[in-house]
């Protein structure tokens, strides 16, 4: 679904970290605080980390959360934690923005919406112009209509498409100032723009709203439009980090794992649309829980997938899980005018490891294969019993 390859690696690393913490008698969050990456650190290849590093803030939020501070009691119950990280890429994104006569704005962008960026890109343009986001109407275009835009992937689209929208809106804003100056027979330096109102400096009685000026464009010099291409490339998207806390109860008779409580804490940069961010965190966590506990492909001897429908491919639903508590830690990205970081993919990274660590606390077995299905839980318990009988 998300973060290809990273969830697998995190499952291995974070379960080993949990083993280390048990051996040395150290709290897992404290271990991450001691060893986690900080501002100024470099990657394993020697290159510096880009943007801001919010891992310490995330760990602090986890350590002080009501979930982590509340003791978990009961037989066959356990709590596990796991951290994760994701690099938000930059990349090409283009848009064309035009002011309509009714005071709305049309925007053509070359990236497609698979996670809500239609709204958040509109919000970024609207913020620059001081108009309601509902007045920015987005339509999706191909490269016959706008400049090249890279694929929607890597949790980068809000960052890169939003960057293009920001630049285009700034250019439109400047053109509006110049048009008002022309109407008032003054220079652009004598015009100020604030909250979608243009005013002539030193003359409180001379002003126009964005909508009023939009209605005059055709008779004062023609349409106003601008195009822009995001130039915030490479690692400009920054690094984002997360910590998940999972409480589980394991039935040793059936091997079923029940999620009792789940908290997902994420550095989200600056949350442009908080409810969308919350939805991404919850959705990714649920997908990760499904990966951890029951989602698996089955093939027959002819190589045909035998559970290819939603009837047979078991995914968790709201009936299977408690509310996913999403905690947003805002550590703005300095490489974006609104502090944007990606959030779509890191949400799936910690769940398998957090749940595996919780299962160990509940029944004393380390699960090493995903999914940790009831059958595999029972096999692990039987293997543990067999080892005990031979000791």
Quick take:
The protein is built from ten helices and eleven strands. Helices cover 35% and strands 19% of the residues. The mean pLDDT is 93.
Can you lay out the helices and strands and say which pair or pack?
Blueprint: H1 6-24, H2 28-35, H3 55-63, H4 66-69, E1 77-87, E2 94-99, E3 105-109, H5 117-129, E4 136-140, H6 157-183, E5 191-194, E6 197-200, E7 203-209, H7 210-214, E8 225-229, E9 239-250, E10 257-267, H8 274-293, E11 324-329, H9 351-363, H10 374-390
Parallel strand pairs: 3-4, 10-11
Antiparallel strand pairs: 1-9, 2-3, 2-8, 5-6, 6-7, 9-10
Helix pairs in contact: 1-9, 2-3, 5-6, 8-9
List keywords for this structure.
single chain, 4-stranded mixed beta sheet, Aldehyde Oxidoreductase, domain 4, 19% strand, alpha+beta, 2 domains, 391 residues, elongated, 10 helices, 35% helix
Can you offer a commentary on this structure?
Helix content is 35%, strand content 19%. By secondary structure, the protein is an alpha+beta fold. Helix 1 runs parallel beside helix 9 (351-363) and helix 2 (28-35) packs antiparallel against helix 3.
Number of helical segments with 4 or more residues: 10
Kindly report the CATH topology of the largest domain. Answer: Aldehyde Oxidoreductase, domain 4
Based on Cα principal axes, name the global outline.
elongated
Topology, number of strands: 11
Q: Please identify the structural class as seen in this structure.
A: alpha+beta
Element pattern in H and E: HHHHEEEHEHEEEHEEEHEHH
What are the segments in which pLDDT stays under 50 over at least 5 consecutive residues? none
- Mean pLDDT across the residues is 93
Number of domains: 2
Rg, Cα atoms, Å: 26 Å
> What is the percent of helical residues?
25-40%
Main beta sheet, described? Answer: 4 strands, mixed
What strand line-up does the widest sheet have?
1-9-10-11
Full CATH superfamily name of the largest domain? Aldehyde oxidase/xanthine dehydrogenase, molybdopterin binding domain
What CATH architecture label of the largest domain applies? 2-Layer Sandwich
What is the strand content? 15-25%
Seen as an oligomer or otherwise, the chain set is single chain
């Amino acid at each position: 679904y998300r973060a290809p390859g990273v969830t697998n690696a995190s499952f291995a690393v974070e379960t080993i970290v949990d083993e280390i913490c048990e051996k040395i008698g150290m709290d897992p969050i404290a271990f991450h605080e001691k060893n986690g990456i900080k501002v100024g650190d470099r990657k394993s290849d020697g290159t510096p980390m880009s943007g801001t590093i919010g891992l310490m803030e995330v760990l602090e939020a986890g350590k002080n959360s009501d979930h982590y501070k509340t003791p978990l009691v009961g037989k066959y119950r356990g709590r596990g934690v796991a951290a994760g990280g994701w690099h938000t890429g930059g990349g090409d994104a283009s848009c064309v923005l035009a002011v309509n006569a009714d005071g709305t704005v049309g925007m053509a962008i070359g990236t497609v919406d698979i996670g809500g960026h239609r709204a958040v890109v509109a919000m970024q343009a609207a913020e620059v112009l001081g108009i309601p986001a509902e007045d920015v109407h987005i339509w999706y275009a191909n490269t016959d209509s706008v400049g090249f835009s890279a694929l929607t992937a890597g949790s980068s689209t809000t960052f890169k498409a939003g960057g293009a929208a920001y630049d285009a809106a700034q250019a439109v804003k400047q053109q509006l100032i110049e048009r008002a100056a022309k109407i008032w027979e003054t220079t652009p330096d004598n015009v100020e723009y604030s909250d979608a109102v243009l005013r002539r400096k030193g003359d409180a009685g001379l002003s126009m709203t964005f909508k009023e000026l939009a209605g005059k464009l055709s008779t004062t010099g023609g349409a106003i439009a601008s195009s822009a291409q995001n130039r915030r490339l490479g690692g400009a998207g920054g690094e984002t980090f997360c910590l998940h806390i999972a409480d589980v109860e394991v039935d040793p008779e059936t091997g079923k794992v029940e999620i009792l409580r789940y908290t997902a804490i994420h550095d989200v940069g600056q949350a442009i649309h908080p409810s969308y961010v919350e939805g991404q965190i919850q959705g990714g966590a649920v997908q990760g829980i499904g990966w951890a506990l029951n989602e698996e492909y089955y093939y027959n001897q002819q190589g045909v997938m035998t559970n290819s429908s939603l009837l047979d491919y078991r995914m968790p639903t709201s009936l299977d899980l408690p509310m996913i508590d999403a905690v947003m830690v805002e550590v703005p990205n300095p490489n974006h005018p609104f502090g944007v970081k990606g959030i779509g993919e890191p949400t799936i990274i910690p769940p398998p490891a957090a749940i595996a660590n919780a299962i160990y606390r509940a029944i004393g077995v380390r699960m090493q294969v995903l999914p940790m299905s009831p059958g595999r839980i029972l096999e692990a318990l039987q293997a543990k019993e067999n080892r005990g009988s031979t000791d």
